[in-house]
Design a protein that fits this description.
The chain is of the alpha+beta class. It is 32% helix and 23% strand. The chain contains four helices and five strands, in the order E-E-E-H-H-E-E-H-H. The chain is globular, with a radius of gyration of 13 Å.
């Protein structure tokens, strides 16, 4: 069983369309392109860049949050390469269901 470590997002910067550089409390960084996972009721609204660019750092849960309630677990963000294929596949399934 994989351990679910606790990470906190310390800072982020939008570096391109749907793309952020995210800095964690352990000094690690990830550059994440969120576009492939933006599907489904919660994440689809983030395809609108004016919504996506409203991301904030929630001081309580210490992760990225958006005004519509969308967020990602900091551990998922910290280890994005480990999760991106599964999240992308899930997004594709949601897109098929939305048609």
């Amino acid at each position: 069983m994989d351990d679910h470590l606790i990470y906190r997002v310390r800072a982020f910067e939008i570096v391109g369309p749907y793309t952020m550089r995210v800095v964690f409390d352990d000094e690690a960084e990830q550059v994440i392109n969120f576009e492939p996972v933006l599907a489904g009721e919660l994440y689809r609204p983030l395809r609108d860049l004016s919504v996506f660019n409203q991301a904030q750092l929630d001081p309580e849960v210490q992760t990225l949050v958006w005004p519509n309630g969308a967020d990602f677990d900091p551990e998922t963000l910290r280890n994005w390469p480990k999760y991106v294929e599964v999240l992308t596949a899930r997004a594709r399934k949601w897109e098929l269901l939305e048609v």
